[in-house]
Every structure is written in structure tokens, then in C-alpha cells.
Amino acid sequence: MLLRPLAKARAWGGTTFASWGKFSQAPAQPPFGESWELSDLPGAEGCSGIESGPFAGRSLREAMQSEERAIMGRAQLSNMGRFPLLVKFLDAAENLSVQVHPSPAFAQANADAHLKTESWFVLHAKPGARIWRGVKPGVTREEFERRLRGGADIVPMLEEVPVQAGDCIDLPSGLCHALGAGITVAEIQTPGDTTFRVFDWNRNDPSRPLHLEQALACISFGAAQELERWPISNADRTPPVLTRHFRTTLLSRTPFYRIERLEALQDAELPVVTHQRPACWMVLQGQVSFDGPTSVTAGPWRSLLVPAAAEGMTARLQAGTCLLRALVPDPMDRWIA
């Protein structure tokens, strides 16, 4: 299914999506910061449409309701009973807020708060670009809260990390973080958008309130952040799996999804192996096409949902095609060493 992206205006957004030809941007409109590529969240503004494939003209929610088993296979739905991933492109012309997503304990105690583990794959980063990921080891919860409530600058208490194209950064729920200016990423995450802002770079925008009490209840400190479990990888420095036609690099593996970069070394056909679970393919360059009762083709910056039932189909990739595959785990994975 070729998915129709959803444009999301953000205070920190830029002009990258317009340069990609994704959305027409009127001068008076606020900048688009996010392109939701695959979403099955409640409400019309949170659900992807389908442009081509057997459900063309319908929504992903309608497809899920009609053909859940064919789409999901053995994979499990989210705890909201919906597709278990939310997939986006983010264009940060300015810094995103310093923020945190609900910790497991907070989510368990608050039914309207949803966990959000996410991963950023850096597509472009200007020279000197950086992110903030976690609180420095020596900073205590008490010191952080005292400085935060006193209006002092908390940014020096955060771990600052330089990034470059090809980096993949995992951000588990409960980890304080921020995406820096001049970075464009593909984001794969669990399907919740509960965000607590800690600091918003003094924007003083009433539509972007801070959430200090909730954030302080969720932020992990010190060893509890377990950053050693979430190392930053780089696609160009990670050993790939090479075949005659393809180069495949594993970028991230979390309990909720796996992310791979697939590159076609020449024009080639790729038999689709789903292992009875769905995947999202985000095309970064080149072209992917499927033949069937209804043909589906995706070019750069477009995304496809490949359902579990697509096992045995054939994808045709042009030479030089590069895409990300976000794969939903099989419930049996936890039993396989």
C-alpha cells in the first residue's frame, strides 16, 4: 500500500519537505516540521490515507478493520488495538524542545499516557549539528529539579552528542532528549505521541506549554538511563550483509521494531519475505515497484506498508535505490536467542 503522508506544522520546522516535493507550502503557512508517513492514531488527523494498492482511496484504519490478519500476520497490535508503529520524517530548522516521553511507571499509573520509544535515522545534518540525549551521569534528580524550577539553564546538564548523516539514535521512553537545529531524520516509533516539554528554548509560545510536573515524574537519571544498552550506530560504519544485488545494514533492534537500510547495487528483483509480520518501507532514493492485481510504485521520500500477506511477492528496485525497512517483531522473537 502506497501511503499518503500527513503534513504537520511545527514551530521548529523548515523547508525540506517542499524541496522534496512532498507538500505545497504557502508563504503564510507555519513551517512543516513533520511528515507522518504511516499512522493509525485516532482521528482523521492521525490516520494515513492509501493512494494505491487494493485499498486505494481508503484509510489505513479501514484497511486494518477489514483485513487485520492479512496485514498483521502473527504480529501484535498496540495496546490501543492499532498498528504498532508510527513512522515519520522530521525537518528541524530549529531546536526541538527538550522533552521526555512517559516512563513505564507513569504510563501504568495514567491511562491517557502512552509509552514512546523512538529512533532517529539522520538523513542530513549541517556541520556542527548536535542532539541532546540523556542527563549527564553526575546530575541528580534533586539538582536537576532545583535548577529547572529556579529558571536556570538546564541544557549544560544534558549529554550533548554531535551527529552526522547515517547515524541511528535510539531513545527509549523516559530518556530526556532534544533534536538539534539543522537535522533531518526518519523517525520510527511506537504509536503514541504523549510528550512532556521540559524546556522550549525560551519560545514563550502559549500553544507550547511546559509540563514540568509530568516530566520530572518520568525522566530517568544516572545508571537508570541504561544508555549502554542503546548505543548510537552509523550505517556507513556498521558491517553490512552483502549479496550479489543488495547491501543490508541492521541499524537498530528494540523490543518494538527493527530498522534496516537496504541498498540496491544494480537493477534487481527482491522476493518479499515477511515472516508473517508487516513492515514499512521508506524510500530515500531510487524507485521500488510491485506488480499485482493493482501495481504500486514508490519514489524518493514516499513510504509503503508491506503487509504480512505480501509473502512471496516480488519487489523491483532500480540500481542505487536506498530505503529503510521498519519491521514489526514477531511475538516469538523473545524466545529466540
Kindly describe this structure.
By secondary structure, the chain is mainly beta. The chain has two domains: 2-230, Sandwich (Jelly Rolls), CATH 2.60.120.10; 234-335, Sandwich (Jelly Rolls). It is 12% helix and 36% strand. It has helices at 16-20, 60-72, 104-109, 141-149, 212-218; strands at 2-4, 6-14, 32-38, 49-52, 86-92, 98-100, 118-125, 130-135, 158-162, 167-171, 177-179, 183-189, 196-199, 233-234, 241-242, 246-253, 258-264, 268-271, 279-285, 288-290, 296-298, 303-306, 314-317, 322-327. The strands form six sheets. A seven-stranded antiparallel beta sheet has the order 2-3-5-12-7-10-14, with no helix packed on it. Strands 15-16-17-24-19-22 form a six-stranded antiparallel beta sheet, with no helix packed on it. A hairpin with a 4-residue loop joins strand 16 and strand 17. It is globular, with a radius of gyration of 20 Å. The mean pLDDT is 93.
Write the layout of secondary structure elements.
Layout: E1 2-4, E2 6-14, H1 16-20, E3 32-38, E4 49-52, H2 60-72, E5 86-92, E6 98-100, H3 104-109, E7 118-125, E8 130-135, H4 141-149, E9 158-162, E10 167-171, E11 177-179, E12 183-189, E13 196-199, H5 212-218, E14 233-234, E15 241-242, E16 246-253, E17 258-264, E18 268-271, E19 279-285, E20 288-290, E21 296-298, E22 303-306, E23 314-317, E24 322-327
Antiparallel strand pairs: 1-4, 2-3, 3-5, 5-12, 6-13, 7-10, 7-12, 8-9, 8-11, 10-14, 15-16, 16-17, 17-24, 18-23, 19-22, 19-24, 20-21, 20-23
